[in-house]
Each structure stands twice: as structure tokens, then as C-alpha cells.
Amino acid sequence: MSAQADDNTGVTPVRAGFAFDEAALDRWMATNVEGYEGPLTVEQFRGGQSNPTYRLTTPARRYVLRRKPSGVLLKGAHAIEREARVLTGLARADFPVARVYGVCTDDAVIGAWFYVMEMVEGRIFWDAALPEIPAAERPAYFDAMNATIAQLHSVDPAAVGLGDYGRPGNYFERQIARWSKQYLEDVDAGRDPDMDRLVEWLPAHIPAGDETAIVHGDFRIDNMIFHPTEPRILAVLDWELSTLGHPLADFAYHATMYRMPPDIVAGLDGADLLALNLPSEAEYVAAYCRRTGRETIPDYGFYLAFNVFRLAAILHGIKGRLVRGSAASAHAEARARAFPRLAQIGWGLAQ
Fold first, then answer.
1. 208 and 303 both lie in a single domain
2. 148 near 287, Cβ under 8 Å?
3. Same domain, yes or no, for 207 and 285?
4. What is 23-50 written as a DSSP string?
5. Residue 307 in contact with residue 249, Cβ under 8 Å?
6. Could you count the other beta carbons within 10 Å of the beta carbon of residue 193?
7. Helix (H) or strand (E) holding 151
8. Would you say residue 123 lies in a domain?
9. I need a labelling partner for 279 at 20 to 30 A (CA). Which of 34, 93, 135, 183 fits?
10. Phi and psi at residue 51, in whole multiples of 5°?
11. Using one digit for the tens of pLDDT, what is the confidence trace for 108-146?
12. pTM for this one?
């Protein structure tokens, strides 16, 4: 198991600074969660660097709670009510997501907004090379990911109550402006020359044309729960960056796994894909194109550079929260250290 998996897998006792009134939660769940019966045991997941995430255990079942972090929050960040809304909407389209049991927007209950969802039991892979899986079976797991993101982009937002989940059109202009602003305003985390170059380069190179779909925003292998024994995805996790956006931006983010070092995210940079029996990047892109009725993805390089920039901005935000003392994950420091290298990768793709 990798160090990243060790940092993210399983639960610990609730860490210092992340405790809340468990009796108040028990009372809320008794009133708002169908079928709930205590007593309740609360533990904290090691992962979830942005929104603190907890495992709730009762004699009959387990739940997952995600809440906003403590401290000063950037405007619009950590909107857990949006996560709950997109999960509820996608469930109507039979898309693989966890069931939401309830949402609380009353700070008085546990000190922050939160939602409770089912705990889906299965496998999470932290290494995109899938060392746990026999080589002959690995293509089926990649095909499952490819089919799932294609399915997401085929969902009609209006048909599942998400027609107003984001603003259609001008996705790249808005996203580049949003993440540039967040990067530039978070003075605690400092500046980086490669990131500064991307802030200038990206707005001048936005491809022509536009599309709108529900986008996940962080679709990668370690944000999926696979069936315990089959190459099938039971639930896609971590929807905090989801919105209405450009499907090619979302797919290219997912495909950056081919360009990413494995120590930053679940990446395949430097891996021998043929020896691992994994599809090449070109084959993976072609499979998505077939599923979504495309011939090719023009300007694919821009989409890659944009996504690495956006991920770098997220890690920059984690660095800022670390400086301010509100980072929620045990591995936030490692994420913060990876920021300048990620900005360098993004600028390399832009060039």
C-alpha cells in the first residue's frame, strides 16, 4: 500500500480541533434520518482534506457525515449543501452515487452545516496502476471509469432537477477567473512564477465553442468506490467541485492521470502502460469519444493545462488553510508541498 493510501485509508479517533457535539448529532439524526437508531459512534476519516468527513456507526448500519470546516472560509467554498443536491439529483438518473439521508443548514446543531449519506462498502484504489488487480483484468476497470464519466456527461441536468446547478456557457472564462482570484487573494499561501504565467496564458487560449453538462470536477480513480470483486463502480465520491460546465474540461481532468506523478495524485506518469496492460492515453480518449459521439478532442492540450492549473489552485488553497490552521486532513502538508511542482507541470503543458 502506498504512503498516500496509508494517509487516506480508514478512520481514526476524531482529531483535535474537529470534534463536535455528538449527542446533538444523535438527536438530529433521530429526527431527520429515516430508520436511524442509536447509540452512535463517531470516527474521522483520514482523507477529505477540504471538508472534514466522519464515519458514523450504529448497531444496524454505518453512515458518512461531511461538514464544512471550522475557521474563516473563502466565499463559495465548502458548499456541502451543493454536494448533497447533486447526489440527490444524479440518483434519479441511476448514476452511481451514495444515498443522501439528510442535510442540516443550522450551525447550532454541530457548529457547521453538514449532510449525512449512506456508507457504500467496496474498494478504493489509490494507485491508478492497479497493482492489486491481476493484469488481465485491469482494462475492465479502466473501461468502467471511462463509461461512468461518459454516463455522467450524458445526464440531462434539467431532467434530474439540476438545470440551475451552475451557469451554462463561458465555463472556462468563469473558472479561470475564479481560480485565479482565489490564488491571487490567498496571500497566506504566497505566489509562484509558473502559476503566475498560467494565470496570464489561459484566458488568451480558450478554445472556440461551448458545451454544458453536469461535471464532477475531481473525477479520478481514488474518488470512486468499486464493487468488492467486480470491475464495477458503486459510487462516485467527493462532489464539492461539481457544477454545470464543459464536459471536455471534466474528462481532461480525469485523463490527466496519464500526466501526473503518482505521489501527487493517483497518476501514471512514468509507468510502463504496456507492461501493466493498461490502455494508452490515446486509446482512453478514443473510448470516451466513441461513447459521447465525438471524433476527436481538438485543443486537448489546453484542457490538460487548464486542469493542472485548477488542481494547483486547489493545492494552493490547502496550503493557505494549513498556514491558517484550518486544514482538515492529516496529509494537507504533503499536498501543500506539491503545489509548486504541479504549477510547473501545468506551465509545461501550456508550452
1. yes
2. no
3. yes
4. HHHHHHHHHHSTT-----EEEEES--SS
5. yes
6. 11
7. helix 138-154
8. no
9. 93
10. -105, 120
11. 999 999 999 999 999 999 999 999 999 999 999 999 999
12. 0.86
